[in-house]
From TrEMBL:
Protein name, per record: MORN repeat variant
Superkingdom of the source species: Bacteria
Length: 228
């Protein structure tokens, strides 16, 4: 629990082998999806407060409090009066998680949406000062050409369980080079290979750059695809 709290404290403080045959060429490029970014509707810029009294009354010995709303949304609250408070809200049957951090005075500090419990941040994140004023809006989607829906489609075609703990999506944008990279971790397939894979994708070209397969219990790795 301490490590989990530390992770969010840091985040809110800074608020993210060669081809063998022609068959592999069919999956090298990510297809673009025109689907609307529905997850952007999950958060807004309104000020809100964390109910500290309710949390302290119901929290478990582990330090968190998990409950489910009538609409099926699961909420996990945790934190303390030293590091602040946090909330993870996962709507029923959703791949997206609403993440919120609060000051020790219970006022909202930052909020936004992630893909999965430990996945990349998505859409617009809102940051507030201790007086409750909205001080910053950051659109984490802006620099990327590939959308999360493009990635979801790729994962589905790779026989991946999108809800599994073994599935995670991360992305990075280099301000100096103006290039973005996606890194996918999943249990599934890539062409004729299957298993625990790490897939790296170039955002500009939308092409798979490298596929690494975890081959042993100790995390041994093997490159099974590399773009020249």
């Amino acid at each position: 629990m301490k490590n989990k709290i530390l992770l969010y404290v840091v985040f809110f403080a800074i608020c993210s082998c060669k081809p063998q045959n022609s068959k592999q060429e069919k999956i090298e490029k990510i297809k673009l999806n025109s689907r609307e970014n529905e997850y952007k509707k999950l958060v807004n810029k309104e000020f809100e407060k964390f109910d500290i009294n309710r949390f302290n009354k119901h929290k478990y010995e582990s330090g968190d409090y998990i409950y489910v709303l009538n609409d099926g949304t699961q909420i996990n609250e945790y934190g303390n009066e030293e590091s602040g408070y946090f909330s993870e809200q996962k709507p029923r049957k959703s791949l997206f998680v609403i993440s919120k951090g609060y000051y020790i005075n219970s006022g909202i500090r930052a909020k936004g949406v992630k893909f999965g419990n430990v996945g990349c941040v998505l859409g617009i994140w809102y940051e507030f000062d201790e007086n409750g004023r909205l001080v910053k809006e950051t659109d984490f989607d802006k620099p990327f050409k590939i959308t999360i829906y493009d990635i979801i489609e790729f994962l589905k075609n790779s026989d991946v369980d999108l809800y599994a703990n073994t599935t995670s999506v991360n992305r990075f944008y280099d301000e100096k080079t103006k290039k973005g990279t996606w890194t996918l971790h999943y249990l599934g397939k890539f062409n004729d290979d299957s298993g625990k894979l790490i897939v790296k994708i170039d955002d500009e070209s939308r092409k798979v750059q490298e596929v690494i397969k975890i081959t042993g219990r100790r995390g041994e790795k093997e490159i099974i695809f590399e773009k020249k």
